[in-house]
């Protein structure tokens, strides 16, 4: 019992050394060489000798005291003040994918009892294993977003053990833990000390005397790749692009002279790690840590020679405001005072009467509702959240959602509905027998009980996952303003329709531009919309995607008048073709009031331009047509050319998909005959 007391009171590193002594002590009990001998098999702690406890595998394991999980070895947690081995994956339950996390694989568990008794440790099977980063020999062995570092697939921006190991420690790559390794060699240069795979570690023994280590080359910092969801503007003699950089999670400003669009200079505006404000040697330079994940789907406007932008903080699911001066230097960047999950769909323009910035932000979820809110600045140069006043423009109750609707019991032609507080499967064919008006959005006409007339029952959807397009009204919101008016457009996913608003947006009655307000009627139109004001008249134009037909559409009218003329600009006449035209539409007006639209063929990954002439005819041309481009944005130069920013998909040297920003220009397309 003296050994038990010593193990419980000593520091954890001291306890690990004492555990080796405990192993020798156990050897005298007479159970070596037998994984589950008569003496070590157990069902309760009292069946084990002093200094031992009954483990999860029904064998006696040493008692190791702890106060927190970090007091225990990798592969164990602190439970009731004792370190307990854990098991995180089970090949018997799911042999195809025992570890759901990308880049991880199920490995042999640390089995203290088996090692101490001399039993052979076998590969993980039905008894379970431990999910650890996959082993690798080269970057190509790892999935996208991971790089091979010292034989393990680590996140592309992950420093082993966060670079925090001391001079007497080594990094245990599978867990990111620094372990005492006082007997290891000193590494030279930039090399890092890592625990080798041959180290005789167990979940209850990882003291300095047991750790084997080696020096390994430091991870190669991946280069940043701006270009996702680019937003383009021409300022003087430069093209300036705001985009999201997903490797590090940054909002990036790319500048290029109009005379040479390939001469691009990048600077991170938001998302840098704490303490890094001006990285040297180009974009990020030696700033390796990812920092906060910001810059998702930026929207911008230019006011007083400055760029004002709204974008999403992906870590917090919040909307942010960032402003730069004419040189692209950040002036301020802060979170907007908007409650709920927000920022993935937003736009920014200016109030016509004051010139102050004003934004529209879609709130995906706020206390059971989705919203479109207006964030209006009280000054031309807001310096903090208190300078914005937030009011709700639209609000929509969210439908019912569940992690597992109807316990997964519905067939392919069934929908999960709720009737009298109980979830049940309803056949789609029930709606054929319904009379009366169509059911509202997120309801289905059905009967879940024999002999009961069908009625409109609420659907139960699967809970949102990651980047799922949310429900509600206000998605793909876009806005534009001049000195006389401000206009906005948005997509209502619940009914599949496009709407417009006239300033003041808060008191404006939404105008149906295209589609119907019946939830179950085709077509589904209005996603990927962008609105613009003609400089030649009070006319507004909206370019958008017809999701039903896979076509580019354009509507024009006066937002205040409520009359819109919608027409298809580009559609494939061949039924069932691979063309899907109109996604990520970008709209600009020429000085004479004619629209030019940049858009994607999502089916073939091409970028196209459509231009309307004064006679009313449309000319379409492919600009980027090698099948590797997406998310275009356009702007017009003073000489009449069209500048295009887009995301280029590329394959790196390890045959992994990557992306980059591409800038190019073409003359304005004109109709061959008027």
Q: Helicity, in percent? A: under 10%
Which strand order do you get reading across the main beta sheet?
13-14-15-16
Sequence stretches where pLDDT stays below 50 over 5 or more residues: 1-38, 109-127
Number of helices, counting only DSSP H or I runs of 4 residues or more:
3
Largest sheet: 4 strands, antiparallel
Q: Which value, in Å, is the CA radius of gyration?
A: 31 Å
Q: Determine the strand fraction and express it as a percent band.
A: 35-45%
What is the general shape? globular
Distance between the termini: 100 Å
Number of strands: 45
Mean pLDDT: 82
What is the multimeric organization of the chains shown? single chain
By helix and strand content, what is the structural category?
A: mainly beta
Features:
four-stranded antiparallel beta sheet; globular
Characterize the structure shown.
This protein is mainly β and 674 residues long. Helix content is 4%, strand content 43%. The chain is built from three helices and 45 strands. The strands form 16 sheets. It has a four-stranded antiparallel β-sheet, with no helix packed on it. Strands 17-18-19-20 form a four-stranded antiparallel β-sheet, with no helix packed on it. Helix 1 packs antiparallel against helix 2. The longest helix is centred in the first third of the chain and has 16 residues, at 12-27. Mean pLDDT is 82; it is low at 1-38 and 109-127.
